[in-house]
Write a structure and sequence with these properties.
Blueprint lengths: L4 H24 L3 H21 L9 H18 E2 L10 E2 L1 H55 L1
Parallel strand pairs: 1-2
Helix pairs in contact: 1-2
């Protein structure tokens, strides 16, 4: 005979319900307060039966549910990565790594802004240099013109 905790638990609960029913029947004629207590106990037992019932034969005892939760916790622990070097399509970064990535992105954005500003300054300086060169060319042409005419 194989051991099935659910069947054994159910048999125990059924036995308790039967015993309480017999006691209730006896006490109904003796004392109303105990009868009320028995009805409450029966209700509590029924609640426990409902709580522990499951249509999944792999999760039909509290211990099996606890074991399943532990397995999921272990699985989650192997999925989460707390560094920026581990790769894999089945891995997920922790929120701490997300904060580090955000810091890197923010820093990169600041650097890009700085570079953009420097390029703009160089372009502005280049325009000034072009204007100066154009002015110098004009002066040189004027000097050549004076020299040729003299």
């Amino acid at each position: 005979m194989s051991y099935n905790p659910t069947t054994i638990n159910q048999a125990i609960l059924d036995s308790l319900v039967s015993s309480f029913t017999q006691v209730k029947t006896y006490l109904d004629t003796k004392d109303g307060d105990l009868s009320t207590l028995i009805v409450q106990l029966q209700s509590d037992i029924q609640g426990l039966q409902t709580l522990t019932s499951s249509d999944d034969v792999n999760l039909d005892t509290v211990q099996e549910i606890v074991d399943a939760i532990k397995t999921v916790e272990t699985s989650i622990a192997t999925i989460l990565v707390n560094d920026l070097t581990t790769g894999g399509v089945t891995k997920a970064l922790t929120s701490e790594q997300g904060k580090i990535l955000k810091g890197l992105i923010d820093s990169t954005n600041l650097n890009l802004t700085s570079i953009t500003n420097r390029v703009a300054a160089l372009e502005s300086g280049q325009e000034g240099l072009k204007t100066s060169i154009a002015g110098a060319e004009s002066q040189i042409k004027s000097l050549f013109s004076v020299v040729e005419n003299s």
